[in-house]
Amino acid sequence: MTTATREDLEAGTGSATALLRTLVGSVLRPVGGWMSTAGAVELMGSLGVPPATARSSLARLVSRGVLERSPRGATAGYAIDAAALPMLERGDARIFGPRVPAATWCLVSFSFPEHQRSLRHQLRRRLAALGCGAVADGLWIGPSSLEAELAELIAGFGADAGTGPTVLFADATARGDLAAGLARWYDLETIRAKHDAFLDRFAGTPSPADDADAFALWIRALDEWRVIPYRDPGLPDDALPPGWPGGASAALFARLRGTLEERAVAHARRVATVSESDRPAISESDRPAIAAAGRAPTRTR
């Protein structure tokens, strides 16, 4: 199992598997790192994910090394794979860490022989997923705060063994017109759209009265937010276009976290260990309503 497969930094948001990954990273660890299959299906059901799709997503995260099957007696369940914990901790630092505008920058220079061009394309995608911008074909730039993550990434391409790219880390203060540089290096229009979409979807959302609804809102908000700090890894406001929405979206996320996270964890703690025998039987009259609820706008992969 490779780190890239487990982390899947290029994955999108909103699918059943993405929501489960967000659930695992945010509420499963605080409740002990284990959930029954029935509990997982119930939690995913509160997000509009049908049981069959939830079970497929559980299997998918097992295959990716995020979860492992872990029965407790007669109760089927899943635990966080110990090898996934460093990945989740790195995600915490990026997603929940303070938004610090970059003051210095890290340059990554690499080259591959033509017969390894597939590796070149993979490295470009991974650099972009970590929050770097393209200065030229073999020269990328990112805030110097990313240096440790970048060093780990590059090591995975064989740099330590001398068989991969030629890499230069250079901590430097940007000179000249940084605003013009950022506009060339980063897709600012796409990054702005991510911020705007988060604000449009969650600004003004009332705090739910029910903890199950608070759980669903928190997981949805976190799932949409978690990609933003990777696309906008601390780009300095004074070098961005006027009216940049990054500060507003970060403030909204902080408010949502403050009002929803503890309630979401409390709800997950109540549900996570439920067994099949604990679940009430579903009457035939209830099945159409439950089926309709499962058809919420959630992608299945």
Question: Could you explain how this protein is built, in words?
Answer:
It is a single chain. The protein has about 300 residues and is of the alpha+beta class. About 50% of the residues lie in helices and about 10% in strands. It is built from 13 helices and 7 strands. It has helices at about 5, 15-30, 35-45, 50-65, 85-95, 115-130, 145-155, 180-185, 190-200, 210-225, 230, 245-270, 285-295; strands at about 35, 65-70, 75-80, 105-110, 135, 140-145, 170. The strands form 2 sheets. Strands 5-6-4-7 form a 4-stranded antiparallel β-sheet. Strand 5 (about 135) and strand 6 form a beta hairpin. Helix 2 (about 15-30) crosses helix 10 (about 210-225) and helix 3 crosses helix 4. The longest helix is centred in the last third of the chain and has 27 residues, at about 245-270. It is globular, with a radius of gyration of 21 Å. The model is unreliable at about 280-295 (pLDDT under 50).
Distance between the termini: 20 Å
Rounded mean pLDDT score: 86
How can the largest sheet be summarized?
4 strands, antiparallel
Beta-strand portion reads 5-15%
Number of strands: 7
Question: Which series of helices and strands comes N to C?
Answer: HHEHHEEHEHEEHEHHHHHH
Share in helix? 40-55%
Quick tags:
single chain; four-stranded antiparallel β-sheet; three-stranded antiparallel β-sheet; 7 strands; 50% helix; globular
